């Protein structure tokens, strides 16, 4: 793989645009001062692969619901009704998500690792920082597979227009005037500023918006309230599974709000199905040996190097790479041990000359819309770096 060295963005500049989480605990920069060189053909292959994968997820979503496979993929029972309600009604629009992929460069085939469909991180990095990095180095910032910002703006408009022409957003919105409340957990600047970036994009799209921390939002049979106002739309950068596990009463109340048409929540509850790594087992059942998929099972795979991970787990926690003979290559601990395990065929990630691994992340907002990379060790964790890209 080819890397192009660049002049790093200063911390002062990053902070001036709201990107505060630029330095890791070990005092090294989280944003790499180099970019991965890819070809136009590789960019197009990522685009096509993720559009195809999304269609497959939608087909498999129907299958899970029709066959009541929620327990199988580790979905908490108290959100099943919310998932069904949001799936059956088009107004529950999927705003954005991110596919994590192996391969795609150096002639390696693209393989789906997992789908961050509910609360994907690295939005700010992909949509804003990559552009700034290329621009600051006098490079053509359009020389990348990255229109995340515009794609999100258009997708916010589709909350109102759905599958019809987004040019009609303004006339429809003027009749409704529905407001979006954006919420994150107090105390996480990354979550807060990512949420506020989304709020900014929604405001640019033409919505009336507001922001409030989750602990100050009120929920009742009548809907969702903050600052003595009711909101027809609520965006929360809080994982659905956390609500299900930690806030049972809220999970049931949100289901009631959805069923009584008092508010619409983003990302929709059905994204929890996609978020579950157990969903990859369903995909493999429906599309066995599909070139974009890795074999996945709820039981250890026979005679294969594989990865054991949890249906719900983040940043590489509770993950094991298991050799063909059953010995453990490398493993991590974490807080997700209580979730169901899946076993996924191991695939080598592309590596640089220093032996660092690179995982592609492709954002999806109505269609595939932007690429970025995470760089780290064999298991990518919360110390992995964000690496931009340039098309050469």
Automatic annotation (TrEMBL):
Identification of the protein by name: Glutathionylspermidine synthase
Keywords (A to Z) from UniProt: ATP-binding, Ligase, Magnesium, Metal-binding, Nucleotide-binding
Source organism, top-level taxon: Bacteria
Lineage: Bacteria, Pseudomonadati, Campylobacterota, Epsilonproteobacteria, Campylobacterales
Taxonomic source organism: Malaciobacter canalis
InterPro entries attached to this UniProt entry: GSPS_pre-ATP-grasp-like_dom, PreATP-grasp_dom_sf
Domain Glutathionylspermidine synthase pre-ATP-grasp-like: 12-391
């Amino acid at each position: 793989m080819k890397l192009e060295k660049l002049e790093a963005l200063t911390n002062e500049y990053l902070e001036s645009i709201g990107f505060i989480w630029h330095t890791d605990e070990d005092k090294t920069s989280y944003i790499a001062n180099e970019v991965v060189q890819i070809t136009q053909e590789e960019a197009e292959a990522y685009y096509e692969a993720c559009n195809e994968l999304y269609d497959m997820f939608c087909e498999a979503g129907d299958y899970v619901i029709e066959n009541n496979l929620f327990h199988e993929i580790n979905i908490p029972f108290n959100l099943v009704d919310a998932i069904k309600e949001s799936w059956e009604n088009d107004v529950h629009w999927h705003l954005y998500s991110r596919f994590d992929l192996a391969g795609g460069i150096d002639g390696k085939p693209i393989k789906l690792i997992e789908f961050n469909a509910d609360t994907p991180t690295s939005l700010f990095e992909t949509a804003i920082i990559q552009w700034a990095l290329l621009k600051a180095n006098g490079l053509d910032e359009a020389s990348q597979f990255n229109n995340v910002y515009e794609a999100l703006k258009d997708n916010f408009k589709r909350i109102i227009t759905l599958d019809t022409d987004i040019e009609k957003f303004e006339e429809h919105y003027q009749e409704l005037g529905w407001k979006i409340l954006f919420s994150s957990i107090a105390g996480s600047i990354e979550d807060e500023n990512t949420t506020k970036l989304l709020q900014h994009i929604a405001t640019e799209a033409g919505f009336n918006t507001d922001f409030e921390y989750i602990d100050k939002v009120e929920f009742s049979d009548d809907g969702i309230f903050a600052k003595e106002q009711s909101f027809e739309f609520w965006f929360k950068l809080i994982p659905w599974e956390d609500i299900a596990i930690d806030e049972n009463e809220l999970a049931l109340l949100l289901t009631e709000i959805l069923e009584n048409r008092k508010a619409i929540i983003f990302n929709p509850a059905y994204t929890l199905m996609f978020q579950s790594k157990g969903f990859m087992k369903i995909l493999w059942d429906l599309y066995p040996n599909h070139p974009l998929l890795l074999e996945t099972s709820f039981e250890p795979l026979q005679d294969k190097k594989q990865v054991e991970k949890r249906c719900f787990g983040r940043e590489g926690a509770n993950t094991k790479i298991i050799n063909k003979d059953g010995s453990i290559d490398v493993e991590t601990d974490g807080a997700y041990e209580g979730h169901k395990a899946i076993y996924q065929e191991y695939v080598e990630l592309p590596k640089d000359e220093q032996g660092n691994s690179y995982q592609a992340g492709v954002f999806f907002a109505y269609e595939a819309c932007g690429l970025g990379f995470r760089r780290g060790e064999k298991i990518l964790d919360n110390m992995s770096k964000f690496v931009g890209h340039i098309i050469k």
